[in-house]
Structure formats: C-alpha cells, structure tokens
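debug: dumping io for the single-chain case to check the tokenizer round-trip. Nothing else runs in this session.
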Amino acid sequence: MADAELHAALARAQTRLDTLDFYPEPVHVDRVRIHVAPWFFRIPGFRRYRGYAFWRTILLKGPNPSDDLVTHELCHVWQGQHRALHMSWKQLTTRYRSNPYELEARRAVEATRAAQAP
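debug: decoded output
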C-alpha cells in the first residue's frame, strides 16, 4: 500500500474518532506515522497482532489494512495522548483481553462503524 493510501486511511480513522467524546480533545495526527512492517510481527510476542500502536507510530502487519484496524490502532494513539502513564501501567498489569484500553478501542470501532456504512 502506498504512503498516500496509508495516510488516507489514517485520515478516515481520525474522522471516525472525531465523532466520539472519549477524551477532552480530539486525536492529533499531525505527528502520527503509519507503516506496513511485517518484520515486526515476526518478533515473538507480537505474532498474534495485525497492528500495533506506539506513541506516534502505527505498525501494520500487512498491506491493505481495513479501516477498522487503522481506527482501532489510532484509538490507542489517542489514548496515549491523554492517559500515557495509566495506559502503560494497565498494559503491564492487565491481561490483553480485559485491558480497558483494548476494550475501549474495540468500542470505538463498533461505535463508528455504522457511520462509515454507505
């Protein structure tokens, strides 16, 4: 997927998240980078993921990610912009499936999916 297409996917995800009021300010994407990096997902511990968000970087396992996946990962960036320390603590102390930030990112995708339907 070309950089322009990835940035377009990022813009669509931002538009979706802008409809939510999870945090006092909308997600800021001006410094967010998105890359397809299949090598990252060969690292033990990361093989099960299709995407992974760092503070300002989203890594994707494969080309042509769904808008839902990009929205999910951008939600993690948004969470980090508002609750970085708590988010890090929960990642260390909570199982993946019950992590409140993971659950919130899934809720964000579900809540904004209907708005994306034609």
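debug: round-trip ok. The helical segments are 3-17, 67-93, 100-116.
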